[in-house]
Amino acid sequence: MSVQAQRPLPPPASTPSGAPRTTPVGGPSGRPIRLGLRANLAQFSLLVAVNALVGGMLGQERTVLPLLADRVFHLSAYTGALTYILAFGATKAVTNFFAGTLSDRYGRRPVLIAGWLVALPIPAMLAWGPTWGWIVAANVLLGVNQGLTWSTTVIMKIDLVGPARRGLAMGLNEAAGYLAVAVTATATGAIAAHWGLRPQPFLLGAAYVALGLGLAVAAVRETREHARAEAAAHLAPPGADSSPAGTDRGKEGPATAGVHARAGDPAALSTARIARTTSLGDRALSSASWAGMVNNLNDALAWGIFPLLYAAHGLELGRIGILAALYPAVWGAGQMLTGWWSDRIGRKHLITAGMLVQAAALGLVAVGTSFPVWAAAQALLGAGTALVYPTLLAVIGDVAHPAWRARAVGVYRLWRDGGFAVGALIAGILADAYGVTTAIWAVAALTALAGITVAVRMYETHPRS
């Protein structure tokens, strides 16, 4: 298999070969570079706050937009009503892919700033758009915003913390984002119940954009040199199979050094080859990509279908907002534990359990008819997602070499957020043809299948396991 040369990520000149990952390294800026959560706590905490604002941009839609489609724009077909999720998911998936490549080429910070610039018109389009086409267009921009900003904050945190606390870092990152989704969904539901569906709920989004852009420009620092420092100190374990060629690795051991080229600089791997490895070749990377896609497929169901189901059973707007927030709240808070937990016991079993728990939760939504049952189901769905979400990102960080890890994260997130688009299509078509309950059961079955696939196919990637 030929390898198309890319511009390599050169290690800092002052780094000796095989230096410990926490050894200070002089970067081009002249500042010492250290890996680790404690060593980079201030910048890491800032990025957590930035990602909370990114999550808030998504949360402004979770309660209000499905009801806007029904009550303001009078879209009776589920397939039509879910076009905004389809537009969001497809755009975000593609943007994720390019975000990794762009952040390797131009740096993480410029990509983060670009993502916030794209977000500037979104709140106004949602608040005052005269037709449903404006709402769909706003969600195209939201997909670009989320793909650039969320992907970049993930990559930057992985850069900063190094390998030892990767699961914890991803747990904190995702917790901040999805707790903000939950808080904003609750807030917009309450605002909508008091003042109406538009424009007041979307003024929160305008504040998030202003604050996020200001922090990205004024306070966030570039982290690409941290990835280069880790790459310079990166050593393959003795006797490990380091080929990214896509062959079956059999009974793999821990992928502590990631997937390398057999010869030459891992930074020389082409983006196409990395995409093949992440999507199909490596059993852990490809299993994580499949599980991530199915996870967001059922999230599309929760986002677009559940509020309409609750409204059809007579729940008032405030209670719908609580249910819409409960799922991402448990999901967000739980990740602070599950990311750390995966650093202790490994990734594979948490992912398997999480997918099966999600499937059970979806089944409970399908059979439920009351607020208490749906609240329990939403909490269970959040717990299952918390087991899965940061752990899948940690798998990518475990396996991918630092020189091409950003691109691998982009490919994984391409598949994962493509689940929004797939979910919108599947849920909309099945709900229109056979009813909402059938659509929910079908997604539950796919989620259980994803958990079984991980159990059978994925190898454990964490070095301590």
Automatic annotation (TrEMBL):
Supply one GO CC term from the record: plasma membrane
| Database matches in Pfam families | MFS_1 (PF07690)
Q: Which GO terms describe its molecular function?
A: transmembrane transporter activity
Q: Sorted alphabetically, which keywords does the UniProt record give?
A: Cell membrane, Membrane, Transmembrane, Transmembrane helix, Transport
Is Transport among the key words of this record? yes
Which coarse location class applies to the principal site listed for this UniProt protein? Answer: membrane
Alphabetized Gene3D superfamilies for the sequence: MFS general substrate transporter like domains
Q: Which residues does the annotated region (Disordered) include?
A: 1-29, 228-264
Q: Where are the transmembrane segments?
A: 41-58, 78-99, 111-128, 134-155, 176-196, 202-220, 350-367, 373-396, 417-434, 440-459
Localization (cell): Cell membrane
Residues forming the Major facilitator superfamily (MFS) profile domain are 40-462
As for membrane topology, the entry says:
Multi-pass membrane protein
Matching InterPro entries: MFS, MFS_dom, MFS_trans_sf, MFS_Transporters, Sugar_transporter_CS
Identify the PANTHER family for this entry.
INTEGRAL MEMBRANE TRANSPORT PROTEIN, RESISTANCE PROTEIN MDTM, PUTATIVE-RELATED-RELATED
Kindly provide the name given to this protein in its UniProt entry.
Answer: MFS transporter
